[in-house]
Design brief:
32% strand; 1 helix; three-stranded antiparallel sheet; mainly beta; two-stranded antiparallel ribbon; 69 residues; globular
Amino acid sequence: MFTFDEAKAKKYRKKPLVIEAYQTETELLIPTLEGNHIASAGDFIIRGVDGECYPCKPDIFIETYDPAD
């Protein structure tokens, strides 16, 4: 069983980065670097820095990203 090692852990901040994303209205099958993922209606589709795409649940997206415009 895996246990996170608190004694070895250090704090890290995510690098500021501007991404492109949109919220899908339909279910989509997204080919990702880890294999195919299903995006549900309402999920955000994110395009990463190398052009890869992946889905993100709305609550996680809102906690992680702020509008850049």
